[in-house]
Amino acid sequence: MSHDALQLLLVEDNRADAYLLRKLLVQETQIQLTHCEDLRAALHSLDQHCFDAILLDLSLPDSSGLETVKAIQQANPETPILVLTGLDDEAVAIAALREGAQDYLPKGELQRSWLIRAIHYAIERQQNLDQLQHLNQELVRSNQELEQFAYVVSHDLQQPLQVVLGFAGIIDALYGDRPDEPIHQYVGDIINASKHMSRLIRDLLHYSRINSAPKPVECVDCEAVLDQVLLDLQPAIHRTQATITTDPLPTIYGNETQLGQLFQNLLSNAIKYQPAGQRPRIHISAVQKQGEWIFGVQDNGIGIAAADAHSIFQIFHRLHTREEYPGTGIGLATCKKIVDRHQGQIWVESEPHQGTTFFFTLPQIPIQG
Ligand code: ADP
Asked: Is pTM beyond 0.85 here?
């Protein structure tokens, strides 16, 4: 908002205080002051005019304390509020800041120069805050659009891919009795590439759906989640003769499907990233600390160099070729997005050639918002 003169609304029922403030402020020609003595009049004034800032006494005849700040803020969220307090009202003043007031001014200490400065600072801060909030909303919106785009594209790609796979299978069957023909090799390559693309699309679909899934607030028994994951991983566990041990796991608040995906990705990596011929030994731990659970998935595999400890959580970032270890590079990015959504943290500790432990935290109490 830009005016030649600063438009201020003073809400103060104490005549002496109002007189003092008016006297300090009107020496300043660049200020126009409107004065109200109660909340009702102030709300009416805010309805009729635009102000650059509001000087607000909290104890009014028709409202008191934080209720006054809330009412004014609700009516006019974009105008900065400077709360006028008594000298011993610091606790209330700080509570008012938490409610969104920009500053507080102890009445007994008012001096003209810093009063003007405080008002200008409050206006600047409020403008920056509004801009930040606006940019944040834009960011959230564009992220949602991107996720929706990834979802639609990956969903629509599945169907033509199934057609390719279907016909490749038919050609493969036609040449089944002539394995030496080069076409047999070509079709094999088409089938392998299509299967990889299908896995990529499936993983991308999971990734893009994380933030639109139901809020992570249900009561989830991690033991039951793990049982299901171990059942799904049975073929890989059997093939590699992996041993998997676990601490007793807690019940926490989260999204059950996503926590299943999290365990599934970490465990399948722990089974996969092993030296050729080695039997995977994996342990799942859960430790309670300062209001959260710290989970660990520890393996005896190939390990990760310290330099790669952060980049592996980026989407499509892989440390090996597909020939060495198959994969899409989406698993850990998905894990990170799931843990972020549960307001937790995920990190890795590893010793190359010795093994790796992935840690993640989950809240003990339902998360907010
Ligand atoms: P993918 O396994 O499909 O390649 P991820 O996002 O799950 O994708 O993992 C990213 C990279 O992190 C992997 O390519 C691998 O190099 C490394 N990695 C993940 N888990 C482990 C592990 N338990 N041990 C060693 N390296 C791992």
From this structure: no
